[in-house]
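ok so i was messing around last nite and threw this chain in just to see what happens. nothing serious, just curious
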Amino acid sequence: MTANAHRTIDAALDDAPVFYPTAEEFSDPMVYLSSIEPKVRRYGICKIVPPPGCAPAFNEDAWGRDTERFDTKQQHIDALKEGRTFKFGKEYTKAEYTTAAIEFDKQFSSLAGAGSETMERRFWDVVETQSEKIAVDYGNDLDVNVFGSMFAATSDGLRHPWDLGHLFAHPLNLLRVIEHEIAGVTKPWLYLGMRFATFCWHVEDHFLCSLNYLHRGASKTWYGIPGVDAEAFENCARATVPHLFKDAPDILHQIITMVPPGVLVQHGIKVSRLVQNEGEFVVTFPRAYHAGFSHGFNVAEAVNFGHIGWLNFGQKAVDVYSKGAFKRNAVFAHQRLIVDASESFARAYDIARASLQSKSIGALTSALRKEMERMLSDEQYFRASLVRRGLQLKEVKPHADNDDVCCVRCKAIPFLSVVRCRCLPTAVRCLSHAMDACSCEPEHRCLEIRASVHQLSNIILRLSHASARGANHQGTRETATTPLSRTPAHGKDAESIKSEHAPLGTPWTDEELMQLVKGIKIHNINLKSQRESRAIMVISIAAMIPTRTQTQVQSKLKKFEGQVRRMTAERRAQLGIEFTPNHADTRLLELKRAWEKRAVNTGAG
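result:
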């Protein structure tokens, strides 16, 4: 192995994808970004070059307003591998920073007019070998509410479709349902860079996507790692600089460490590279670690967005934030975002069904439905478990003023339900940590329900209807309705359940029936295990499903009777079953008669 085997400039980095959309494709940013993700997934980052004449114009008026001063971060480029916390640099106005950056360039006369490869070689020579000491000031994370967005209005006075300040409101952006502004997430940040100003390895908050536009000035070199390799990168970084992680386990959250790509490649991590020029966009996709540096003075702007491809990563981010070395506060309530987005997108399809976005919205409603089903299943499990342990139940308004408080144990922001204790009623716990943080008895704790099973089931049902309309509109047919879209409300009678969730004439598969009965409360049975669900499943079949034949119902009634008889008294007591096998016999007879009556009325059987 040669001495330069680990040097980044000699490493085998992949070229990140570059896209050249047509004017029509470029007309809708969220539709286009979703369409290219499958091609970018194995790289993590990509570049988009706008069609000729379609790039956003620079806002000279906003740039000219130069009364506000901003802080900078002082970066020692030769110490980036050491993970030092950046100290504050000088304060500047935009004009002063421009002048300082241009003057700084003059110190590197040998780089005047140099290409990106030469610039990259010099940068990594300083980082990897500490061949010279270089300090720069980086103007990052500047609030556009204070310093202005650099996106100018179009010639007709409208906002450009790719104006990052406008992206938040796009119908396909899941973040649009967040009611409060989050700087850098829902509201863009401005970035002023000079030669070698660096953004170290990091992922976006909640593993979101990001969109970065280089308004003007010198190029940037970017490095990206695909989301599937995120944990491998973290393990490699921990192994490469263990002393940094020992002193600060959350060092990657601080965005102060630059592990050279050459080292990562040598450890089998896939790293891609691209050069962003003035007037070009760079996209980072979910959980893609990225880093880079500026070749000289430049002005950029960036914001986060959440699209259909992010849904699988959002809950993962919450889980990662809640434990281990990467524990940190959540930025927003993920559960609330999913619920609010689901309600919004359930309504949105009819509005957009004739537009370019109809197919995308249809796909998004299906993805949200699956996420809602997962959340509902988790809620049912934890709520039933906590009630059995003795916690008191209390229904509260779903959008209380304090519904963005972090769990005292894991720092997640629970929304659908929270647990409070008498000893400290202002502190909240998520359901996973309901019994943590104090030693009080369960009866001293209160389980606050902000959204009932009935409410969540109705949202899922509406999403199912929107998805079905989308499938029909696109000339396809859904072959199976989602199981939990038919999940009845807690404690509903069979007739109400049938009328709300089980249209007559729709056949049900055994899997659907199994899911259907989850959460039904009959004689104080909270169904949990598969075997117990199968035992009670027949009640739903006999009382609600007229499309089953009499032979099928009788067969399942028989199985149910046998399972009830085999239950031990201790097991019935544990489950809170209030009827005996004899009572079950009576109940079976009642259900059989009810089914026969229904069969006559509907012509089923």
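not much to say yet. The first strand starts at residue 14 and ends at 15.
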